[in-house]
Amino acid sequence: MTASKAPAPSRPEHHPIVVAHNKRRGEDIQLRVADAITRFAGSMKFVYIHVILFAVWMLAVERDPWPKLTLVVSLEAIFLSTFVMIGQNRQAEFAQRKADHDFLEQEAELHLNTELTKAIHGLAQEIHAHVTKADGA
């Protein structure tokens, strides 16, 4: 006889703030392009392509590759640093939104706990009054 297992309750894969953040980013073409560039620029494939291109350029294409190579590498660094800053700004914005959400959730939880504590205290006083009244009768 095989025991059937009940399906595990479904839990969301991501925090609601993460879902909203990803949805908003997915709707903006500029942010999608920036994310794709950042993702590619942060990969080893990017490094390998550059090693090959620069080696071919220096060895086969130019007799004196340094002036143009310096210009190209400098321009690329400027653009890549911009994408890094875009990514950092995105992470900072996300962290702030998450912190704000967590703060509101904690405040609501604190309010609920305070109300529950007051209710328990009131019930404990009623029980105490009932018990002491019964003992005195």
Counting DSSP H or I runs of 4 or more residues, the number of helices is 4
Radius of gyration from the alpha-carbon trace, in angstroms: 31 Å
Alpha-carbon distance between the termini?
A: 61 Å
Order of helices and strands: HHHH
> Regions with pLDDT < 50 over 5+ consecutive residues?
none
**Based on helices, strands and strand pairing, what is the structural class?**
mainly alpha
User: What is the count of structural domains?
Assistant: 1
Question: Helix fraction?
Answer: over 70%
Mean pLDDT: 85
What general form does the structure show? rod-shaped
Would you report the number of β strands? 0
Major β-sheet profile: none
Give the percentage of residues in beta strands.
under 5%
Describe this structure in words.
- Helices cover 83% and strands 0% of the residues.
- It is rod-shaped, with a radius of gyration of 31 Å.
- It has helices spanning 16-27, 29-41, 44-61, 66-136.
- With 137 residues, it is an all-alpha fold.
- The protein has one domain.
Gist of the model:
With 137 residues, the chain is mainly α. 83% of the residues lie in helices and 0% in strands.
Topology:
Layout: H1 16-27, H2 29-41, H3 44-61, H4 66-136
Which features characterize this protein?
single chain; 137 residues; mainly alpha; 4 helices
